[in-house]
Design goal:
Oligomer: single chain
Shape: globular
Number of strands: 16
Strand content: 25-35%
Structural class: alpha/beta
Number of domains: 2
Distance between the termini: 10 Å
Number of helices: 12
Helix content: 25-40%
């Protein structure tokens, strides 16, 4: 099969012919990939930023936002069958440790793995191996390419919004900094789940136009005066800020746009967050980290997606155009999410 593999960090991946994955355990599931999302994390992986954390053996197949059709199952799999349309939680977890039993899939301490990020091949290929615990069954008429990026970008955004829902009662304000692949999903989730006033900050005019059409009440160009503009709009700062940028100074802008007793949800990474301790004490401000989401988050998000309340704005590329997709993403030329279709 064709697959996109990293052979060396800080160099372009290659499109290789490799063997199809095989069932390795009774709960394994092989999925024929119908869509694989192209994520900024893939750019970080190629750069080697995750190498010391995950220690994958090179070369390996990237791609951690995957949906498709069940191709083969292990002997103990009962929740899906060959031919089912599925979207895959990015980290198959053990189901037995305390974190899993508490529903915190991303903190699994058992035999979890992360296809496309850990030492396991991902879904920028024709087939991918996962487990039954990762499979969310979809309506059979769902096009996997339409929803693939919800597997990571979607639940990352949804997970943060879901945590913030109790804070965002009527009369509150929420700022979304960065209306790209994750941010445009968060805007829709906020509109579907809360009555908060949604303000979106982005430097791209097209992204702001999209934000306005999917739920933003106000949009603010990131022109150097955006912090002051948001502070004026919110009378001192927002109730919650969702920072999908968090680099090149944006992480400090997000904190400045967070009001007293407010919450700065940090989802992007690459920068360095610094704040005076007095801000925390006198302002009673809070900084919250977020990573991906839970299996239940993905199930809930798919309910919204299949009801038409959350829609991915995508640009499709063939699998053999993977390098074009990665370069377009790196250059900021992708509106919404880039999807590879084998």
């Amino acid at each position: 099969m064709k697959a996109v593999r990293v052979h060396a960090y800080q160099k372009d991946p290659q499109i290789d012919d490799i063997p199809e994955p095989e069932i390795q355990g009774p709960l394994d599931v092989i999925v024929k990939v119908g869509g694989a999302g192209v994520c900024r994390t893939d750019l970080h992986i190629i750069n080697g930023d995750w190498a010391d954390i995950q220690e994958p053996a090179l070369p390996y197949v990237i791609g951690h936002e995957n949906a498709g059709w069940v191709h083969a199952v292990g002997d103990a799999v009962t929740n899906v069958a060959v031919g089912d349309t599925v979207i895959l939680h990015p980290q198959p977890s053990c189901g037995l440790c305390l974190a899993c039993r508490a529903g915190r899939d991303m903190q699994c301490t058992g035999n979890a793995f992360f296809p496309g990020l850990s030492d396991n091949d991902g879904g920028m290929a024709e087939y991918v191996r996962t487990t039954a615990r990762a499979c969310v069954k979809l309506n059979p008429d769902t096009d996997p390419a339409d929803v693939a990026a919800l597997a990571d970008a979607g639940i990352t955004a949804y997970h943060a919004v879901r945590k913030a829902v109790p804070l965002l009662y009527p009369g509150t304000t929420a700022v979304v900094q960065g209306a790209g692949g994750l941010g445009h999903i968060a805007i829709q989730a906020l509109a579907a789940l809360t009555a908060t006033k949604i303000i979106v900050v982005d430097k791209n005019v097209e992204a702001l136009e999209l934000a306005r059409t999917i739920g933003a009440e106000k949009v603010v160009p990131a022109d150097g005066n955006h912090v002051e503009t948001v502070q004026e709009m919110t009378e001192g700062g927002a109730t919650v800020v969702f920072d999908f940028v968090a680099e090149q100074g944006a992480e400090l802008d997000a904190w400045a746009m967070t009001g007293p007793a407010g919450y700065d949800f940090i989802l992007g990474y690459g920068g360095e967050f610094r704040a005076p301790t007095l801000d925390f004490v006198a302002g009673e401000k809070n900084a919250i980290g977020n990573i991906v989401g839970t299996y239940n988050d993905l199930v809930e998000l798919m309910v919204l997606a299949q009801a038409g309340k959350v829609t991915l704005h995508t640009e499709r590329y063939r699998l053999d155009q993977a390098l074009d997709a990665l370069r377009d993403l790196d250059a900021g030329n992708v509106r919404g999410r880039a999807i590879l279709v084998p």
